[in-house]
Design goal:
Structural class of chain B: alpha/beta
Shape of chain A: globular
Largest interface: A-B, 44 and 46 residues
Order of helices and strands of chain B: HHEHHEHEHEEEHHEHEHHH
Number of strands of chain A: 14
Distance between the termini of chain B: 59 Å
Strand content of chain A: 15-25%
Radius of gyration of chain B: 19 Å
Number of helices of chain A: 12
Distance between the termini of chain A: 30 Å
Helix content of chain A: 25-40%
Strand content of chain B: 5-15%
Number of helices of chain B: 12
Largest sheet of chain B: 6 strands, parallel
Strand order of the largest sheet of chain A: 3-2-4-5-7-6-12
Oligomer: heterodimer
Chain lengths: ~350, ~325
C-alpha cells in the first residue's frame, strides 16, 4: 500500500524499514549540521549501536564526543541533553523504552518542556527524545506502554509517532531542526516493516497529518504501529463496500485539527484508534474537539478504540486481546456507518 | 576544616574586597526582599539565603561572565554574586514584564544568560544534570568555560545528584558541584536525612575530588573553588565542594523554624560571616571602615533603585500566556 496521495508525482523510491530510515535521517542531519549530537544507553558502535541498531555507524563516523553512550541514568541523559541544547547544540537523546521516560519525568516535564516559557522566551531547548514502545512482543507491562497522553498534556513539548519509514525520515529531519523539544515514539513494528521511501526524502513538517486513503463513509484516525491494524481493517471494509478515509495523525501534539475536521466533516463519521489506553487517551481529546466543532453535522457519535484499562499483559493470548484487532475496527466502523 | 591544598591560592586585596562587595550586595538585597514582603508590597514565596553570602561570592570572583551557573530556588544570592543587574531581578521578583523572564518565572525561576545564570530550578536536585549539558557543550566548543551547579544538602539525597556526578566524572565534564550545606533539608536536620557525615565523601564514590570547606570563610571557599575551577578548565573533570554554612531565616521566609534550637541559631548568628569578614578586611588594612560604609551605601542605593524601578513596571499582558510555550506563538 503506497502512502502517496493519488495525484502525487511518481518518484523513485527505495525499500527500507523504519530503523534504516531513522538511521539515514540521523546520518544526514549530523553530516549537514555539526551541532547535532546523539546520546543514550548503548548507542555508540562499541556498545552495539543501540538496542535495535538505530544508531549503528554513527559513532564510527562522527566520533564518540558527538555520539555518546551513557550510563543507565535517564535523568542524567535528559539533563545533559537540556544543557547541551541550551548551550547551542541539537541533541537527540535516546530513552531506550518509553516506560523508562518515567524515571526522567522531572527533566522532561519540569525542565525541557517549560524552560522556554518560564524564562520568558530566553531559553531554547531544541532537543529530540527518541523512545521505543509497543505491545506485540510479549515484553509485558514495563516495556511496552504508550504514554503519549502524558506528554501531550504537558505544554511545551511536541509529540510525534510516525508509521511509515518515509515519515520517520522526514519527521526526524524536522524534529532535529525544531527549536523546541520533541519526543518521537518509535512503535514496535514500525521499525521493522520495509516500505517505499522516496529517494532523497526531505523534511516532513511536524503537526501535519497524512490522508493515507480517501473515502466518503467514515474517517478513521490512527498513528504508529496501530496503522498496520487499521490498514488491514481498511482492506476488509473496502471489500465490504464501506468507503473509508484513513488519516495517519503522525504528530499527536500539536495535532492537525484542520485535516481531521475537514475529513470528519466530509464523511460525517469518525473513529479514532490508538494503542494507548482508551481512558483519557488522545482519542478523548480528538473526539471532544470534533464533536464541539461538528455538533449537528455528524451522522454518528465519534467512536474510540484503545487499550483496555490494564497493563500490557505477557501471555500472547492476553496480549492479542489487549491490542485492538482488525475485527474490532471493522465492527465499530460498520456500527457507526449503520447509525445514519 | 578542609584538607590543605598544595599551592593553595589566596585572594589578593582587590579580590578580597570584591568578595566583600558581592556579600554585601547579597545581604542588602536579601534584607530588602524580606522588608518588602513584610510590608506587603510584594507577594512571593521567598527562600532567604541570609548567612550563605560567602559561598557564591568567593566563587564568583573566579568566574567569567560567560561561565555559567545552574542554581535553585534558594539561589538569588548566587545570581547577585554573579553580578546579575538588580533592576530586572527585582522586576522578576515582582512579577513584572521587565523582569528577567517577563514575570513568568518569578523568584524561584530566574534566568539571565547575559550574566551566565542559565537555569534556576524549583525542583530539588535538578540543577546538576542540566549543568552537565553545559559542560558537554563547552567541551565540544573547545572553550575553557566552566559551569557551577549550586544545590543544597537535601539535594544530595536525590537520584539526580548521583546520576549527574557519575556522568560528569565518566565524561570528565568542566562542572563544579557546589553544595551549600546549611544543615537543614527544608525542615529536616542534616543527620536525619543524609547517610554520611560529610557530603564531600560522596565524591569518592564518583571518582572525583571532594572537599568540605568552611562556607563562612571566604578565603577557604576561594582556595578550593580556585583549585576546582582550574581543574575543570584544564580538562581534568568535575569537583564536589561542600561548603558548610547556616541559614538564618528558616526554610521559607515566615516559617516558624521550630526545627532549629534557639541555641544553635544564636551560635550560628554569632558567627555571621559578614561582620567577621568586614573586621578582617579592616584589620588587614585592605579597607577602612569608612570605605566599607560608603560601599554599603552605594549598594543600598542600587537596591532601592531596583525596587522602585520594579514597582513602577507593568504587569505582563494576558497574551503572554500564549507566548513562549513554543518558539512560534500559539494562535488565540
Amino acid at each position: 500500500m503506497s502512502t502517496d496521495t493519488l495525484d502525487a508525482p511518481v518518484v523513485e523510491t527505495v525499500k527500507m524499514n523504519g530503523l534504516q530510515a531513522i538511521n539515514a535521517a540521523l546520518m544526514e542531519a549530523m553530516e549537514a549540521d555539526p551541532k547535532v549530537l546523539v546520546l543514550g544507553e548503548d548507542i555508540a558502535d562499541n556498545e552495539g549501536g543501540g538496542v535495535v541498531g538505530v544508531t549503528r555507524g554513527l559513532s564510527t563516523k562522527f566520533g564518540t564526543m558527538r555520539v555518546r553512550s551513557t550510563p543507565i541514568s535517564e535523568q542524567a541523559i535528559i539533563g545533559a541533553a537540556i544543557g547541551a541544547a541550551m548551550g547551542g547544540y541539537k541533541p537527540v537523546a535516546e530513552i531506550m523504552l518509553m516506560n523508562f521516560t518515567t524515571v526522567a519525568m522531572d527533566m522532561i516535564v519540569n525542565h525541557a518542556a517549560k524552560l522556554r516559557f518560564m524564562s520568558g522566551g530566553q531559553s531554547q531547548v531544541p532537543m529530540v527524545i527518541r523512545t521505543l514502545t509497543g505491545a506485540g512482543n510479549q515484553t509485558a507491562g514495563q516495556h511496552a506502554d504508550f504514554y503519549e497522553a502524558w506528554f501531550c498534556h504537558t505544554a511545551g513539548i511536541k509529540v510525534v509517532i510516525p508509521w511509515t519509514p518515509a515519515d520517520f525520515k522526514g519527521l526526524y529531519l524536522s524534529a532535529i531542526q525544531d527549536p523546541d523539544p520533541v519526543i518521537i515514539v518509535e512503535s514496535g513494528k514500525t521499525l521493522f516493516v520495509p516500505m517505499d521511501v522516496p529517494v532523497g526524502q526531505g523534511p516532513i513538517p511536524l503537526g501535519k497529518a497524512n490522508v493515507v486513503a480517501p473515502g466518503s463513509d467514515i474517517t478513521i484516525v490512527s498513528y504508529g504501529q496501530m496503522m498496520f491494524t487499521v490498514m488491514q481493517a481498511y482492506e476488509e471494509l473496502t471489500k465490504a463496500g464501506v468507503s473509508v478515509e484513513v488519516v495517519d495523525l503522525r504528530t499527536i501534539s500539536p495535532w492537525d485539527k484542520e485535516t481531521v475536521l475537514a475529513s470528519a466533516g466530509k464523511t460525517g463519521r469518525l473513529l479514532v484508534v490508538h494503542e494507548a489506553g482508551r481512558n483519557f487517551g488522545p482519542g478523548a481529546e480528538i473526539a471532544a474537539t470534533v464533536q464541539e466543532a461538528l455538533f449537528g453535522k455528524l451522522k454518528a457519535p465519534v467512536g474510540r478504540l484503545g487499550a483496555p484499562y490494564c497493563s500490557v499483559p505477557f501471555a500472547k493470548k492476553l496480549e492479542d486481546a489487549f491490542l485492538v484487532q482488525p475485527p474490532e475496527i471493522i465492527a465499530e466502523a460498520q456500527r457507526l456507518v449503520a447509525m445514519g | 576544616m578542609s584538607e590543605i591544598l598544595e599551592n593553595r591560592a589566596t585572594p589578593d586585596a582587590k579580590t578580597q574586597l570584591d568578595i566583600y562587595r558581592r556579600m554585601i550586595r547579597i545581604e542588602r538585597n536579601d534584607d530588602a526582599t524580606r522588608t518588602q514582603i513584610r510590608r506587603g508590597r510584594i507577594t512571593a514565596p521567598y527562600y532567604s539565603a541570609r548567612g550563605q553570602e560567602c559561598i557564591p561570592s568567593a566563587i564568583s570572583v573566579l568566574l567569567n561572565n560567560d561561565d555559567k551557573i545552574c542554581t535553585i530556588y534558594r539561589g538569588i544570592h548566587d545570581m547577585v554574586a554573579k553580578d546579575m543587574p538588580l533592576r530586572p531581578l527585582w522586576a522578576e521578583i515582582c512579577g513584572r514584564v521587565d523582569g528577567t523572564c517577563k514575570g513568568k518565572g518569578g523568584p524561584m525561576h530566574l534566568t539571565h544568560p547575559e550574566t551566565g545564570v542559565m537555569v534556576t530550578t524549583g525542583i530539588v536536585g535538578s540543577s546538576m544534570p542540566i549543568a552537565n549539558g553545559f559542560g558537554w557543550a563547552a567541551l565540544l566548543d573547545g572553550t575553557k568555560q566552566v559551569t557551577v551547579a549550586y544545590f543544597g544538602d537535601g539535594a544530595s539525597n536525590i537520584g539526580a545528584f548521583h546520576e549527574a556526578l557519575n556522568l560528569a566524572s565518566v565524561w570528565k565534564l568542566p562542572v563544579i558541584f557546589v553544595c551549600q550545606n546549611n544543615g537543614f533539608a527544608e525542615h529536616t536536620r542534616y543527620e536525619n536525612g543524609t547517610s554520611v557525615d560529610q557530603i564531600s565523601k560522596r565524591a569518592i564514590g564518583y571518582g572525583m575530588p571532594g572537599y568540605t570547606v568552611d562556607g563562612n570563610d571566604p578565603v577557604d571557599v576561594y582556595a578550593h573553588a580556585h583549585a576546582a575551577i582550574a581543574r575543570a578548565r584544564a580538562g581534568e573533570g568535575p569537583t564536589l565542594l561542600e561548603c558548610k554554612t547556616f541559614r538564618f531565616m528558616g526554610h521559607v521566609f515566615g516559617d516558624a523554624d521550630g526545627y532549629m534550637t534557639k541555641e544553635e541559631k544564636a551560635e550560628a548568628m554569632a558567627k555571621d560571616p559578614l561582620p567577621i569578614y568586614r573586621q578582617k578586611l579592616i584589620d588587614d588594612g585592605i579597607a577602612t571602615a569608612e570605605e566599607l560604609d560608603a560601599l554599603t551605601a552605594k549598594i543600598e542605593a542600587e537596591v532601592n533603585d531596583a525596587i522602585e524601578f520594579a514597582m513602577a513596571c507593568e504587569y505582563p499582558s494576558d497574551d503572554e500566556l500564549r507566548r513562549d510555550v513554543f518558539a512560534e506563538e500559539i494562535p488565540a
